[in-house]
Amino acid sequence: MRAKLITTAVFLLTASGVRAEPPRLLSAEPAPAWADTGTTPAPATVNIPTETRPFTMAGPQFWASGDYVLAWYTPIRTPPLIQAVPAALANQSTGNGAVTLFPENNRINFGAFSGIRASVGANFDKFGVEVGGFVLERQGESSSFFNNGNPVALGQGYISAGSGQPTTLFASLPGQYSGGVSAAAQSRLWGVDGNIRRAWYTFLFDTTDVLVGFKYLDLHESLTVYSPSVFPGGGVISSRDSVRTSNRFYGGYVGINSRLGNERGFGLDLTSKSGLGGVAQRAELVGSNSFIPAGGAADIEPAGLYARGLNAGTFTRGKVAYTQDLELKLTYNFNPWFQVSFGYSLMYMSSAIRPGGAIDAVVNDSNVRFVAQPTPSTLARPAFAWRADGLTVNALTFGARLQY
């Protein structure tokens, strides 16, 4: 009966001019708008996200940091500036039995230097910039010994050019005259740098940037030795040597800075920089000695024990030098904008002239008027020569950083 009704309905619709369509499923999608036109549209463009690193900077946009620095660096090597000889041996011309009182092991060790370090930086879309600097306090080391020659005689050490033997120039002798030796050294180091940073491929860290920049270091040091002797009649003989040195490094460097950590919690920060440039070195040596008789006028000569003849004056040169910086910091982020850190850093410069290196320990004492029993010699000593050493600075850092 149902089939007959459907057939009848189709016949009536056809007869009336209405086009019959086949039935559709209820779940079928409606026909697209272009179906009646008989054309096929162009395929749609799909935007697939692409990886922008390492070409886009990551991390904070702006930052400023400050650190307290506790540093130690290479001691200054010197001749034995202050010696003690047992009174029983003091009348011998050579320094038999001499014990060096200052500096210990012939090296002036300044101990720990306190200092500060600060930097500011910003990251843009494709690169970042950063500038910073540090300064260590001026540190001094000194020692003085004076007596009447008992139980030990005091003096300065040198090597006699005539005999080639270690010798002591006495400032005090038992039963003859009283006196002593005073020595003091100072040192100060500071520097600035600036770099451009660029994001790079990461390895074992969350982010790694390549650094290219400029660096300046300034090391100023001085060493002074003063030795007076007072005779029973009131006369005074004294000698003084003063040595000042400076090292100014200008150069470029390349390096990396890698960071590990999230916006909160612990992390690591590793920085390594290798630099090459020139260091302007300067050494200035000035000496003097004086005879002041009791009640008389002073007789002053512009020559000390170490700074005299070919070893007196101002000497300068330029030297190619290599620098290396390495720093590892343990960081802790309290939140995305505040970080604290504790770290270790190492800085090395391949060439530095130090005050002790400017001293020639070999002295032709036959030309020294305040040496009582000189050894004859024709050698032109002391003479200046460049004796540069590497400078190594080890430091602990404690700091904080604001970042946005």
Radius of gyration computed on alpha carbons = 40 Å
Regions with little confidence, pLDDT below 50 for 5+ residues: 1-29, 48-54
Supply the number of helical segments. 1
> How big a fraction of the residues is strand?
over 45%
Question: What's the arrangement of strands in the largest beta sheet?
Answer: 1-6-7-11-12-13-14-16-17-19
Distance between the termini: 82 Å
Mean pLDDT, to the nearest integer, reads: 88
By DSSP, the count of extended strands is: 19
Q: Which descriptor suits the 3D outline?
A: elongated
The portion of residues assigned to helices is under 10%
Largest sheet: 10 strands, antiparallel, barrel
One letter per element, helices H and strands E, the order comes to HEEEEEEEEEEEEEEEEEEE
- Give me the secondary-structure category: mainly beta
